[in-house]
Amino acid sequence: MKKILLPFLIYLAFISESSLMQALLPQENNMEWQFIPRFSMVMILFIAIYLNSTYGLVYGLGFGLLTDLLYTDIIGVYLFSMAATAYITSVFSRYLFGNLIVTLLLSIVGVAILEFFVYGLNSLIGISYQMIDMFLYKRLLPTLILNGFFAILIYYPYVKQLNLLKDTLKEN
């Protein structure tokens, strides 16, 4: 049951991203900033930090593919970006002590890496024509703030679940 709970929680976060996206779109709200919820990515980053890089990579590939299939026309941008971000974050976490502050900083850095990967790949392909300064101000900064608050909200209950799952995996 504990093994099924983890993908289910990430899937709920993934579904809530699209619901919040509709509420936070700047075109509908006449807002200057673009708040992009990356809740499933934050949860995957926690997995990469607290379990291991393999789980983070697999969940990054799975939910990256799901994001590509549902929201983009080109398959592979989020697939690559989410998996690479989870792996990079897990490598950084090996050298740092996993407490609240470090985990929050790593998750914010991970979301920033994801956003830069997606921006860079979309610019390379020719999908995005947004200038880098506008990207930094209008999209990256609000996205990091929103996902930082989400990481703070889920930290204690989610890390508790991850530690229980880690203990279960050690027993088996």
Automatic annotation (TrEMBL):
Q: State the compartments where it is located.
A: Cell membrane
Q: Where are the transmembrane segments?
A: 39-62, 69-89, 95-119, 140-158
Tell me one Pfam family matched here. MreD
The way it spans or sits in the membrane comes to: Multi-pass membrane protein
- Please provide, in alphabetical order, the Gene Ontology terms of the cellular component aspect for this entry: plasma membrane
Query: Keyword annotations for this protein?
Result: Cell membrane, Cell shape, Membrane, Transmembrane, Transmembrane helix
What InterPro entries is this protein classified in? Cell_shape_determining_MreD
Which GO BP annotation is one of this protein's?
regulation of cell shape
Q: Which domain of life is it from?
A: Bacteria
Give the family from UniProt.
Belongs to the MreD family.
Tell me what this protein is called: Rod shape-determining protein MreD
